[in-house]
Amino acid sequence: MTANLDLLVIGDANPDLVLRGGDVEPAFGQQERIVEQGFMVLGGSAAITAAGAARLGLRTALAATVGDDVLGRFVLEELAAAGVETTAVRVLPATSTGISVALSRPDDRAILTARGALAAHDPGGVPDDLLRRARHVHIASPFLQPLLRDGLAPLIARARAAGATVSLDPGWDPEERWSTVARAAVAADLLLPNEQEAAHLAAALPGVGAADPASGLPAPRTAAAVLGSGGALVVVKSGADGALAVRDGRVIRAASYRVDAVDTTGAGDSFDAGFLAGWLGGADLADCLALGCACGALSTRRAGGIGGQPTRAEAEALVRAVS
């Protein structure tokens, strides 16, 4: 079968309720606090990455699970409007769609998630025919989706057998067990964790080098080297400090781009979309990192994960302007 998709994203799709401005830290004891703004937007790491990739011109599909409810219909409508193929998004009856509440500050955020249909997202249900249609498969947020977490290794093997390359953005592990994904993650072609995720994943594997005395976890470069020991290209996202990649013992760094940030929700997922657009287009590693950083930075211009996502022309213009 001819690969007629540049990218198949597998993972989470749900609405994000973003609250920002004012005092976004809640207080128990029945206290009520006022925030400046609230938005319901498309969320989920996989959905945000898919929307960003489509915005950059990649032929993109999403395999995810939502409920047969108003929130599920919202997700499908937003994905379609973003140009993402949704034929592999399962709609489950009598199941609520997952939802996340993001308490957003300009430089950080806290997230509360109700899994809902995310807990029923089974990677075994992704058809082999769909995998064969994709040049590349990107997997997101396995820790939030227990069936995806436990079926990660077979899914990676199936995708590679179908002829696709595979990337993984692990996300945070709410149970902080890490090893459940770390063992499977090293089989991917490309890993896209942030600094904290990389450190925890590496610490769950043998062969970890010197650790930071304060945290007991490996530094980003050490973590990347450990995670890449099986051959994966490891890209570590560092927010305002940019990103780094480790290949054959060599470290390549990219600086972040300064913009007037409104909301950082999904910036790492937009980075993933930009990096993958460069990588699938054959760009060198430094240019992939720069494009990822530009996409991540520009995505913060609007509330939520997808409203500020750039076109390829916008992202490349930012890279040129700062180079």
Written overview of the protein:
There is one protein chain. The chain is built from eleven helices and 13 strands. By secondary structure, the chain is an alpha/beta fold. It has one domain: UDP-N-acetylmuramoyl-L-alanine:D-glutamate ligase (3-Layer(aba) Sandwich). The longest helix is centred in the last third of the chain and has 14 residues, at 267-280. It is globular.
Quick overview of this protein structure:
The protein contains eleven helices and 13 strands. It is α/β, with parallel strands linked by helices and 323 residues long. It has one domain (5-26, 35-322): Ribokinase (UDP-N-acetylmuramoyl-L-alanine:D-glutamate ligase, 3-Layer(aba) Sandwich), CATH 3.40.1190.20.
Quick tags:
323 residues; alpha/beta; UDP-N-acetylmuramoyl-L-alanine:D-glutamate ligase; 9-stranded mixed β-sheet; 4-stranded mixed β-sheet; 11 helices
Topology:
Blueprint: E1 5-10, E2 14-22, E3 35-43, H1 45-55, E4 60-67, H2 70-81, E5 85-92, E6 99-105, E7 108-114, H3 128-133, E8 134-140, H4 146-150, H5 152-161, E9 165-169, H6 179-185, E10 190-191, H7 195-203, H8 220-227, E11 233-237, E12 243-247, E13 250-254, H9 267-280, H10 285-298, H11 312-322
Helix pairs in contact: 1-9, 7-8, 9-10, 10-11
Rg is 18 Å
Strand and helix order: EEEHEHEEEHEHHEHEHHEEEHHH
> Reading side by side through the largest sheet, how are the strands ordered?
5-4-1-8-9-10-11-12-13
Question: Separation of termini?
Answer: 41 Å
The tally of domains stands at 1
CATH topology: UDP-N-acetylmuramoyl-L-alanine:D-glutamate ligase
